[in-house]
Amino acid sequence: MEKISQKNREPLHRVDSKLKVTGVARYSAEYHLPGLVYAVLVTSTIAKGTIKSVDSKAAGRAPGVLAVISHVNAIRPPGYPADNEHPTEPATGGQPLRPFYNNKVYSNGQPVAVVVADTFERATYAASLVKVTYAQAEHRTDFHANMDKAVLPSQAKKNPKSPLADYDRGAVDAYKNAAITVEAEYEHSSEMHNPMELQAITVHWETDDRLTLYDKVQGTQPTQQNFAREWALPPENVKVIAPFVGGAFGNGLHNWPHETAAIIAAKMVKRPVKLMLTREQMFFMVGYRPRTWQKIGIGASSDGRLVGISHASIGQTSSYEEFTESTLQQSRMMYNAPNVSTRYRILQLDVSTPIWMRGPGEATGAFALESAMDELAYKLKMDPLAFRILNYTESDPEKKLPWSTKFLKECFELGSKAIGWEKRKLEPGMLQEGHWQIGYGMGVGTFGANRGGAKVRAKLFGNGSLVLQSAVTDIGPGTGTAMTQVAIDHTGISAERITFQLGNSEFPQAGNQGGSSTVNSVGSAVIAACEALKKELLTLATGSVPEFKDATMDQVVFENNEITLKGKNVRMSLADLMKKSRTADLDVIEEAKPGEERRAYSMYSYSVHFAEVHVHAVTGMVKVKKVVTCADAGTILNEKTAGNQMIGGVTGGIGMALQEDAVMDHRFGRYMTKDFADYHVPVHADVPDIQVLFANKPDYIVDPMGTKGIGEIAIIGVAPAIVNAIFNATGKRIRQLPVTPDKLI
Ligand code: MOS
Question: Which ligand 1 atom is the nearest neighbour of the CA of 248?
Answer without folding.
Answer: 4
